[in-house]
Design goal:
The protein has 3 helices and 6 strands. By secondary structure, it is of the alpha+beta class. A 6-stranded antiparallel sheet has the order 1-2-4-5-6-3.
């Protein structure tokens, strides 16, 4: 018997691809994904992107200068509904870093069909909630994936 283990997705060039399956719990009474769940799928895409790039949230929190992330802006465009049993893919690119801010583009797809897009601005923060420049470790590990 072969057991499939959870995956953090895969990279193709700068883009990260994370498979997402739609379950009954994700939907409203009509079988359509509840709108707030799109934010969850995009969060998973961003987190697994970092994980696969070698960035651990735990490592950032446990470092000499503890660092976390806060999303301070997200623009979400719904194009088509996702439905129960859909096999989807979250496509994420970390585009650039400017001061404490990280700019991320994301797309939720069913095959080649775009269901939703998100433009995300996240901010590195200290544990007191104040913005701070990203740690060198984070910048080094993201560098190969950022826009040239």
């Amino acid at each position: 018997m072969t057991i499939d283990l959870p995956t953090a997705g895969r990279f193709e060039g700068r883009a990260h691809f994370l498979p997402v399956r739609i379950y009954y719990e994700d939907t409203d009474f009509s079988g359509v994904v509840y709108h707030a769940n799109y934010l969850r799928y995009f969060e998973r895409g961003r987190s697994d992107y970092l994980r696969l790039a070698g960035v651990s949230h735990t490592e950032l929190l446990d470092g000499d200068a503890p660092t976390a992330f806060a999303v301070n802006r997200i623009t979400l465009d719904f194009v088509k509904p996702a439905r129960i049993d859909d096999a989807l893919v979250v496509v994420s690119t970390y585009d650039r870093v400017k001061g404490p801010r990280i700019f991320i583009s994301q797309t939720l797809k069913r095959g080649e069909e775009v269901l939703a897009t998100a433009a995300v601005e996240a901010c590195c923060i200290a544990l007191n909630g104040r913005p701070k420049k990203p740690p060198v470790l984070l910048l080094q590990r993201l560098q190969p994936y950022l826009e040239p």
